[in-house]
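Review form for a predicted model. The reviewer records the input and the model, then writes brief findings.
Reviewer: anonymous (R2)
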Amino acid sequence: MTAAPAAAASVPPLAARTSATGGSPVRDILAVTARPEVINFAGGLPAPELFDREGVAAAFRHVLEETPGRALQYATTEGEPALRERLAARTSARGLPTDADDLLVTTGSQQALSLLATALLDPGDTVLVEEPCYLAALQVFGLAGARILAVPGDADGPDPDALAELVVRERPKLLYTVPTFQNPTGRTMPAERRAALARVAARHGLWIVEDDPYGELRYDGERVPWIAAHPEARDRTVLLGSFSKVMAPGLRLGWLRAPAGLRRACVVAKQAADLHTPTVNQLAAARYLAVSDLDAHVTRIAAVYRERRDAMLAGLPGALPEGSSWNRPEGGMFLWARLPDGHDTTALLRTVVGHDVAYVPGAPFHVGEPDPSTLRLCFVTQTPQEIGEGLRRLGRGLGA
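Model under review:
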């Protein structure tokens, strides 16, 4: 007789951190609202019609025709020297003296966050964040096994006194912040607040991770210097940058500027993650910076985005219930709104999507107790006409 097959043993379980962290609520919403008839204020997508398609294509053609062996070959982990040199020059021109060797090119600035988490955090370490906070940063820190605490703050960002108290009490490794045109709120931290945070970091011992993916997209007001430019914080601040919002997110090109010891640790982490960022993309970006005027291109983008922001601001009074409030961001991609007490934007989203429009509820951006009446709106992807129609649909969905 043939013996019955033995029962198969179960495979080992997934790492606990993967189930504890969960997916991105924003990406879940984008999947649900992918129908073309939906006017989607939920994403953080640059307007594709504003990409410099010919300029980027010409840069790729050049590197593939002139240096194909190099463009299609492995590269150093730190990044292509030509790209790092041009990034260093742009950073220096904006008030932060930088050498090429101060920079590590990453596969999008999101990877920079992951590398920093690998280099800095052990399971159980404490991370401080602003409230509300960029969702993907919360994912990164959660996957690293960190304990995440929100710093109390106000409309200008984290409160320096509250930060100092938390640092003394909790002994965190780092503070993560998006001080310019923050995601999700669109707020910009004033210069005085940045200087105060730098002093806290210097006095009490703390890394500051300053994420700046939106800083070049300014529509009003004057540029505010980076936290990294403050003398008190220069030896303990990591500055993150990206081409995703000013050139093209599909290139997946970001970078980090960090003190030497931490930068070397991030290089080791990147070697283990992906060896290096794609060579051809780096060389094409370097070529683009050499022959195209990126600043002029950003100015053109900003002019269009300013018009779209203004269209959303003009339409919000008729779209949101009476008693709602919202901010007026000086740049970036997002606007933060709050409905009157008693409204739950998570519960309302299904009804709103039924009117072929979408937003992101504010609750997932919070580490502490969320405000259920908040929501994030992205204003850059649609034309002013589409924004107007989307806000009319939103008003009907919210019963405004």
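Findings: Residues 189 and 220 are 14 Å apart (CA to CA).
Further findings: The mean pLDDT is 95.
Recommendation: see findings above.
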